[in-house]
Amino acid sequence: MYTVTLWEFAALAAASILVGFSKTAVSGANTVSLAIFAAVLPARESTGVLLPLLIVGDLLAVRTYRRHAHWGTLVRLFPAVAVGVVVGTVFLLWAGDAEVRTSIGAILLLMAGVTVWRRRAAARAEAPATTPDADGAGARLKAGSYGVLGGFTTMVANAGGPVMSLYLLSAGFRKLGFLGTSAWFFLIVNVAKVPFSVGLGLIDGRSLLLDALLALFVLPGAYIGKACVDRINQRLFERLVIGATVLGGLQLLLR
After folding, report:
1. Domain interval for residue 59
2. FRET label pair with 29: which of 158, 207, 227, 238, CA 20 to 30 Å apart?
3. Confidence bin at 158 (pLDDT 50/70/90)
């Protein structure tokens, strides 16, 4: 098993609670978890430790919001996401820990910027659409661009959440449709990433042992998120998430 101190394990446990919380309430919390895992563990290996925990959270999210997915959107996204995952895998074949750490830090800062832009765009919008984007050339182009970026960021850093959040919000999804579609999307994509991560040596026996302990903390996080999703002050929480994400990204870049 990875050698971690008591305080480092406590940090990983808190990050695991955020994984569960993000899957059933606010997806932006995942970027904070990513920064903590990459700071405590070797950056490259941290993505392999985090992936099974994300899948546990995905299963809980699907169990909660499974009836609200928009499958037409998912079908439109998956081909482009597959391209992004392959590109991310090729990158990980040659990237060392320093390159991955720098990439994760840069991706975190990029995702923080994307989230800020998303919030401002949403504030300027007069009203959200009642249905997702209809199929068409524009919708397919948007799905393709977001899908490739989302596939790359989720493969390299498990950081596809803000990209997909921006896409789903721009496509006109309301809360339940957003949560249901996002839950199925990340469950399917994260499970599909497992063979790539095993082949790259990111998931092995010792990482799974650590996951077995940390998974115990994902469960309460998911239930807290489910209980809070209708009560949480979304604006304040997103500001805290963005601030923590920026700090985490800078810490990784400057370390």
Report:
1. 6-254
2. 207
3. confident
* Structural domains counted in the chain: 1
pLDDT in tens, 15-64: 999 999 988 887 667 778 888 998 899 888 899 999 999 999 999 999 98
In 3D, which of 221, 188, 252 has the Cα closest to residue 26? 221
- With beta carbons less than 8 A apart as the criterion, state whether 41 and 33 touch: no
What sign does the CA torsion over 179, 171, 169, 151 have? positive
Average pLDDT, the chain: 83
176-188: b (≥16 Cβ within 10 Å) or e: ebbbbbbbbbbbb
Separation between Cα atoms, residue 97 and residue 85, nearest integer Å: 19
Output the pTM of the full model. 0.83
pLDDT of res. 161: 78
Task: Give the Å distances, CA to CA, from 119 to 6, 153, 211, 234.
Answer: 37, 20, 33, 11
Cα–Cα distance for residue pair 68/70, rounded to 1 Å: 7
Contact by Cβ (8 Å): 57, 222: yes
Question: For residues 153 and 160, is the Cβ–Cβ distance under 8 A?
Answer: yes
Residue 1 lies in a domain: no
CB 17 within 8 A of CB 221: yes
Cα–Cα distance between 89 and 196 in angstroms, integer?
7
In a domain, 108, yes or no: yes
CA of 220: how far to CAs of 18, 214, 224, in Å?
A: 10, 11, 6
- Runs of H (alpha helix) within the chain: 6-24, 29-40, 43-65, 71-94, 97-124, 137-157, 161-170, 175-199, 205-228, 234-254
